[in-house]
Design a protein that fits this description.
Elements (H helix, E strand, L loop, with lengths): L8 E5 L2 H11 L4 E5 L9 E2 L4 H9 L4 E5 L2 H8 L11 E5 L5 E6 L6 H12 L2 E3 L3 H4 L5 H8 L1 E2 L3 H13 L4 E5 L1 H4 L11 E3 L10 E5 L12 E6 L2 E7 L5 H14 L7 E7 L6 H10 L3 E4 L1 H5 L9 H7 L5 H9 L3 E8 L2 E7 L4
Parallel strand pairs: 1-2, 1-4, 2-3, 4-5, 6-7, 9-10, 9-11, 11-12, 13-14, 14-15
Antiparallel strand pairs: 5-6, 8-12, 13-17, 16-17
Helix pairs in contact: 9-10
Protein name: CbiG family cobalamin biosynthesis protein
Pfam families: CbiG_C, CbiG_mid, CbiG_N
């Protein structure tokens, strides 16, 4: 999923008026500004080859692209690169007089709607947002998912279904598991019907549940789990352990602690294991980061856990999975450490979005 970070916004301007507007925006936002050689100003970057070539390169490097240009030009230049609403960056277009700011692409998942409102506020411009949920002043499931850094089975189809139900005035409930109930007020949930208890539902057409659990009580209405990515796994293993062995043991550990596999946020290990095929394949298959920690980083927390002299002689620290999970979860470990077939796995739950 593509979530806009302020430091990853590329801005393109094609005219003197666009350059002047970009200079105003640079005072308020950390932007990387591109323009042509003949319009170049201090702090701007010249197009590399051509405008289209520069946009093509930026499309995969930045999470948001802002254009001070005609909408038609922008549509033509980005059209060959469009792939997927879950992958494409936010695209925002504005005129050089700063009268209108248009959310053109990836309004929800990419954050273009939010960025459009931010830019419009800075410029006292008119934000142009056309997504149905926003027009109807309702929350959107994909926006909520992006804010929570959450996902779900059949994400694309479920988002389409739930958002359509919301704008059609159907009754969609929203239940927060105990781990998230305390922060529910931070999120835009307009249009959803709050649900406090799964055993006493109000009249609903569907129910969305924010949870890490692998299973919930069955309901008589369609139930969709929105799973925040919060679970981390510190992993140690012998060299050349088979990838399927590590994968099976991780799934076993997740199941033992009743975590949905979709909740997995990252795995971590010691520097010596940074090229371990089983761990690299695991991270690739789950599409999650593989965090690497030095011996010194792990040693700071080694005293908290039982140590193995064999492991110390092999990697330089007496424990790998537990201090790695401790660091990734800020000390919030869960369950027992699994130790089987030369593999150790420790789970933790991170509170970071």
């Amino acid at each position: 999923m593509n979530t806009v970070r302020p430091e990853s916004i590329a801005l393109f301007c094609l005219t003197p008026g666009g350059v002047a507007l970009a200079q105003r925006l640079r005072e308020a936002l950390p932007l990387t500004c591109f323009t042509s050689e003949k319009l170049l100003q201090p702090g701007f970057i010249p197009f590399g080859g051509s405008f289209a070539q520069t946009v093509q390169q930026a499309f995969s490097q930045y999470s948001a692209l802002v254009f001070i240009a005609a909408t038609g030009i922008v549509v033509r230049v980005i059209a060959p690169m469009l792939c997927d609403k879950l992958q494409d960056p936010a695209i925002v277009v504005m005129d050089e007089r700063a009268e209108h700011v248009i959310s053109l692409l990836s309004g929800h998942m990419g954050g273009a709607n939010e960025l459009t409102r931010q830019l419009a506020t800075l410029l006292n411009a008119d934000p142009v947002i056309t997504t149905a949920t926003d027009v109807n002043q309702m929350a959107a499931l994909d926006t909520l998912a992006a804010k929570l850094d959450a996902t779900m089975q059949d994400f694309r189809q479920v988002v389409k279904t739930i958002n359509q139900m919301l704008v059609s005035q159907q009754r969609v409930g929203l239940w927060w598991d105990d781990d998230f109930a305390g922060s529910a007020q931070q999120y835009d949930t307009r249009g959803f019907i709050p649900v406090d208890h799964l055993d006493s539902l109000p009249a609903l057409d569907a129910l969305v549940c924010v949870t890490l659990r692998d299973a919930l009580p069955p309901q008589k209405i369609p139930l969709y789990k929105l799973v925040p990515k919060r679970v981390v796994a510190g992993i140690g293993c012998r060299r050349d352990t088979q990838p399927q062995t590590v994968a099976l043991l991780l799934n076993q550990q997740l199941a033992e602690n009743h975590f949905d596999p979709l909740a997995l946020r990252a795995i971590g290990s010691v520097t010596l294991k940074q090229h371990e095929p089983a761990l690299l394949e695991l991270a690739k298959n789950h599409q999650i980061p593989f965090d690497i920690f030095s011996v010194d980083q792990l040693s700071e927390h080694e005293h908290r856990f039982p140590a193995s002299e064999f492991v110390r002689l092999t990697v330089g620290v007496g424990s790998v999975s537990q201090p790695a999970a401790w660091l990734m979860s800020n000390g919030k470990l869960v369950g027992r450490t699994l130790k089987q077939q030369g593999v150790t796995i420790t789970l933790g739950v991170s509170d970071r979005c």
